[in-house]
Amino acid sequence: MKVAGVKIIGVKLGVRKIGASGRVEMHFSPEQDSMNVTINGETKSTSAETLSALIESLGMKSDRVAIELNREIVPREKWPETPLHDGDKLEIVHFVGGGNG
Questions:
Q1: 18 - beta bridge partners?
Q2: pTM exceeding the 0.70 threshold for the entire prediction
């Protein structure tokens, strides 16, 4: 979509008539391309497009996490190229260090 020579990507355009005058008002809002995924048995909404983006959005350190996506373990080096889809089921294990040997 172009508005005044500016290309707008990722927005929804709303148009409505106001009052008897028939004046038209346009408003823009960012599209929310969110999906529902199940993480460790809990349904969550996310706009993350890849496993890497999901881990980042959850505030986890990628070097301390293992991910199973739809019953398949995904190697860490594949996370940036592994897309998420609505309805995916993930098991995320977060490793915690500590203790005395």
A1: 23
A2: no
